[in-house]
Write a structure and sequence with these properties.
By secondary structure, the chain is mostly helical. The protein is built from six helices and three strands.
């Protein structure tokens, strides 16, 4: 089971992989040096942690994701709602809309999601 919480630098690292995958581990090192100012050892250490957490894999020197970016954000959102609102989507929406008015377009989109779900 993947862990759905990432720090700022971890997220930047994950974004590089999702954008470039499949990517050779050597190329990943170069990309991280350019974009994150990381050394080779840092890239491999973080990659190993991500592989252990079930997000990515490094097979034969090729790095790819085990879950897509979209799956990651869906899982992250579910975890946030579970942790913060005891798993209640209505409680989340109530909190969200108490500070931000939904547009008619957003309301229609949400209604369509509900209707399609039925």
């Amino acid at each position: 089971m993947a862990e759905y919480r990432l720090g700022e630098m971890e997220m930047k690292f994950a974004e590089i992989i999702w954008e470039k995958e499949p990517v050779s581990s050597g190329n990943l090192v170069k990309l991280c040096e350019e974009k994150l100012d990381w050394k080779k050892s840092t890239t491999y250490t973080v990659l190993r942690r991500f592989c252990d957490r079930g997000l990515f894999q490094n097979r034969g020197g090729t790095v790819s994701s085990l879950i897509s970016k979209e799956e990651f954000f869906a899982g992250s959102s579910e975890k946030y709602i579970e942790d913060t609102f005891h798993g209640s989507l209505p409680r989340f929406l109530t909190a969200f809309t108490s500070r931000r008015k939904l547009s008619e377009k957003e309301i229609a989109q949400l209604q369509k999601i509900i209707d399609d779900y039925k």
